[in-house]
Write a structure and sequence with these properties.
Number of strands: 4
Order of helices and strands: HHHHHHHEEEE
Strand content: 5-15%
CATH architecture of the largest domain: Orthogonal Bundle
Helix content: 55-70%
Number of helices: 7
Strand order of the largest sheet: 1-4
CATH topology of the largest domain: Tyrosyl-Transfer RNA Synthetase
Amino acid sequence: MSDCSPITVLTKWLDQYLNFEHLPQKNIFWLDTMLSATEDETASLIKKAKTDAERHISYDPVNRPEVANLLMLISLCTKEAPEAIAERIGDGGGGMLKKTLIEALNEELRPLRAKRAELEKNPEYIRKVLLDGASRAREIGIATLNEVRHVMNMVTVYKKQEFIPVPVYLNGAESLRPDLCRAHTEDK
């Protein structure tokens, strides 16, 4: 696995064991869900995790994949080897395993949740970051299209577009999506 961050592993685990693969943009959905969830909501979700009937906890990815995944999530949050975590839990069973994961995951997500809550209080900053990012992406896209058209000997060259953010109301909610904003083109 190339990306072993707790969020990536958690997302893959949620996809596999809670069967939410049908959701569009599931990675963004689950990241937002886990960052906006309370510690109790996270606990409730983890308590639904599948384990097996064997009471003794051991790290065996081949024969006990559900238990191994939970141990790996704890390991990613605590930086402790999954084998050591399994040994420490021992005969504590699935309940102790899930309790350990709940504590480790909530501890790992606590600073991220705090930062998210802080950012939610400043919607103008979020809007500015989104618009700046869209503007940079648009400039790169236009430059790339111009380069492709040049290489292909195409005549049309896109001009730089400037988007004027105009609030658009959809279902009563304000949106500043660039594709819904009024645009004008200038020679630059």
